């Protein structure tokens, strides 16, 4: 199944850092998110876009994971020519991830 089948996303950006939250539609699916959305898997999914570390914060009471992706915006929104790699586009890309 696709991640979009069980979750939705919200994003933000500040400087050269992007934050991305993945929120389960149903809290019973939160365990799947925790199992399959590791920092390494998210970093691999954004290979070529994210050049720094990825941090993950778990928010089980909300059924959500929050990822902070460093060196992800080509120097920052105002310095980058790659506008498609910002904000909502990054979250849409993650929703295409296959969850087994």
Describe this structure as you would to a colleague.
This protein has 3 helices and 4 strands, in the order E-E-H-H-E-E-H. It is α+β, with helices and mostly antiparallel strands and 100 residues long. It has a single domain (3-94), classed as 2-Layer Sandwich (Alpha-Beta Plaits). It has a 4-stranded antiparallel β-sheet, covered by helices on one side. A hairpin with a 2-residue loop joins strand 1 and strand 2 (17-24). The longest helix is centred in the N-terminal third of the chain and has 7 residues, at 30-36.
Would you count the extended β strands for me? 4
Mean pLDDT: 85
Principal-axis shape equals: globular
- Estimate what percentage of residues fall within beta strands: 25-35%
The biggest beta sheet reads: 4 strands, antiparallel
Provide the succession of SSEs: EEHHEEH
- Uncertain segments are none
Rg, nearest Å: 13 Å
Number of domain units: 1
What is the overall number of helices?
Answer: 3
What CATH calls the topology is Alpha-Beta Plaits
End-to-end separation in angstroms reads 6 Å
Structural class call reads: alpha+beta
In short:
This protein has 100 residues and is an alpha+beta fold. The chain has helices at residues 30-36, 39-45, 88-94; strands at residues 7-14, 17-24, 54-59, 64-70.
Topology:
Elements: E1 7-14, E2 17-24, H1 30-36, H2 39-45, E3 54-59, E4 64-70, H3 88-94
Antiparallel strand pairs: 1-2, 2-4, 3-4
